[in-house]
Amino acid sequence: MKTKSLYSIVAVVMTTVLLLTACGPAATPTEAPPEPTSPPTKAPTAEPTEPPEPTEPPAEVGPCLIIGALHGGPINDAGYNQAMHESVMAIKDNIPCVEIIEAENVPEEAGATSTMENMIQQGAGMIIATAFNHQYPALELSYKYPDVIFEHAGGWEMGANFANFFGEPPDAWYIMGVAAGLMTETNKLGFVAAFPLGWTLTFANAFHLGAASVNPDVETTVTFTFSWGDSAKEADATNSLINQGADVITMHVDSPTTIISTAESRGVYSIGFQSLHAQEFAPEYWISGTGYTLGGTLTWLASTVVDGTWQPIFLRCSLFDGCMAMAPFGPQVPQEVQDEVLAVSAEVEAGTIVVFAGPIVDQDGNIVVAEGEVLTDDLMSSVDWFVEGIIGSPK
Amino acid sequence: MTLLSILGVLSSAIFSGTSLLYTTLGEIIDQRSGIVNLGLEGVMLVSASAGFAVTAISGNPYLGMLVSVIAGGLMNLILGFLVVSRRANQLASGLALMFFGFGLSAWIGRPYVGAKIRGLPRLPLPGLSNLPVLYSSLFKFDLLIYLVIPVAILVWWLLFRTRWGLGLRAVGENADTAFASGRNPLLIRYQALFAGGLLAGLGAAHLSIAYTMNWTEYMTAGRGFIAVALVIFSKWNPIRAIVGALLFSGAVAFQLLLQSSGIQISPFLLDTIPYILTILVLIIWGGTRKHAAPASLGRVYQGTE
């Protein structure tokens, strides 16, 4: 009888764990693009096109501003968290009198709240929260501490002392798509994604539109791993795409290292995203990649806090404002391809190419963006379709 | 679906099934001696992070593998202390070990996230090196993959063809009787846990050092629990565990293939296939398991005083 009751316990535990494993994400997404509840209000006039060089503050004893920065994951992940960490550290390089208190690996909301309070107790006058799910903890604290400035990466909420900033990846994805479309020989591209979220689908769509603009025969296959950090499944998914014929692999997961090194070991091209450091994992078959380089923007924001002119701005800035950057091309990318990619990049910058300009047709042949219209930012975050030519199911 | 994609499912099944199989073999030894180790997830994580860290520092994947294996053994000895010496409840201790492993592995692995390592070298199967690289790279295996089937046979031999294995199984069936016939149940359970931990360490080493060449927090993503399920599936038999591990990892690879083959089924549903399969197998095989399970599995041995 005793064995029997043991089995019941084992059965319950196993079933629960299996269900949880099957349904839930393995790790808290540290960089999940936002799903806005209210449409963000953009303030384009206030956007800095070029972050001005901060005026040298007077040398004083003690820091002129203490900045508390917190990240959802480890800051050396060669992915999103590392990109954000380096952006924050750029403030210190540009404004030497600033002191930075940094906390990493703070996945939970409760932990984020206590970490930020701790930073404020230590005298932080500005909080930079880079993880997606830290938006509401930071917003709550902004009511409690009206003298502290809060900046969140990629959110949509605004307040008297709470604002947010981010790069604009879709243009960058389109340009990477052009590179992929020119480099592929099998006309099949592979995209490994964590979850079918609005922004992830938008990235895949932009990537495919770019590829199709230079190579009408190209197909992009998207595979989801349902985890931001299950490396073994990422390797399986990469191999699966390669075995279906894909010869260029790109991804939207937290850390791209496993996917890029798997592609490299199979002799297949890769395109990175999140941090420019991804390149070192593909010495031979690297095409290019894009990453966040928000150092200049954050420096400008911090300088306005220092001189007391900070205003809450919904700040979005693109590849061409220096908020994102393109990694150098890999050794196998011919000069003609490099030239063409850079030419397309110039056209996107000039506005002669608009990535999500209609007509855009989805997988089922429905027109999702009508002729003469452009997909707006807040719609991009809630996209639930794939453009024609993508293989995979978006929901 | 091309020949390449079907071969690819096989290849992925072998690559990601290897770590599962080592871990399952370890759990079979644990359970044959009467101990349910639900802390495998934590054991694997600590082994994977320790092995990865040493590989990153030393640049030698074999050294990292060794450290993984030892770390696995030591983690299981912690469980041994709790459930054998302190006679604690096995399930609660196992879960405690798992959570301890979550924290410890995150701490060990923290400085090495995103580190680039030289993984275990991959050697092509003889005769396949002339194929195009897309095909030959599918069957370029590392040492741990080549060794996994022999290790399964070795575990079977140890359990069913040696005096040590006989004693171990006797303790798992009835520790008092085993004690009466001159065995030391406490020592045997410690030995079983240590051996099981070594094997779980090999599995973890394959995951972080050979296959993904990466450390991320909670990278095992439930594999420790799948191994416990596979033990029941395999009816505590190391040879049958080979089939179980291949089947599960094959199902993961197959659902990824289905996702990318243009089939219009929600990827959310496809992603559950391997787990549904596991649950189905457990239900279907559950009826006959009482003949196979060690009779005193999970029971605390109180000694003879």
Task: Quickly describe the structure.
The complex is a heterodimer of chains A (395) and B (305). Helices cover 37% and strands 18% of the residues of chain A.
Low-confidence stretches of chain A: 22-51
Helix content of chain A: 25-40%
Mean pLDDT of chain A: 85
Question: How would you name the CATH homologous superfamily of the largest domain in chain A?
Answer: Response regulator
Mean residue pLDDT of chain B: 90
CA-based shape of chain B: globular
The total beta strand count of chain B reads 2
Using only CA atoms, what is the Rg of chain B? Answer: 20 Å
Overview of the molecule:
Chain A is of the alpha/beta class. Chain A folds into two domains: about 50-165 and about 295-320, Rossmann fold (3-Layer(aba) Sandwich); about 170-285 and about 330-390, Rossmann fold, CATH 3.40.50. In chain A, about 35% of the residues lie in helices and about 20% in strands. Chain A has eleven helices and 15 strands. In chain A, the strands form three sheets. In chain A, strands 12-10-9-8-6-7-15 form a seven-stranded mixed sheet, with helices on both faces. Chain A has a six-stranded parallel sheet with strand order 2-1-3-4-5-11, with helices on both faces. In chain A, strands 13-14 form a two-stranded antiparallel sheet. In chain A, helix 5 runs antiparallel to helix 10 and helix 7 (about 230-245) packs parallel to helix 8 (about 255-265). The N and C termini of chain A lie far apart (about 45 Å). The model of chain A is unreliable at about 20-50 (pLDDT under 50). With about 300 residues, chain B is mostly helical. Chain B has helices at about 5-30, 40-60, 60-85, 90-110, 135, 145-160, 165-175, 175-180, 185-210, 225-235, 240-260, 265-270, 275-285; strands spanning about 120-125, 140. Chain B has a two-stranded antiparallel ribbon with strand order 1-2. Chain B is globular. The mean pLDDT of chain B is about 90. At the A-B interface, helix 1, strand 7, helix 7 and helix 8 of A face helix 1, helix 4, helix 9, helix 10 and helix 11 of B.
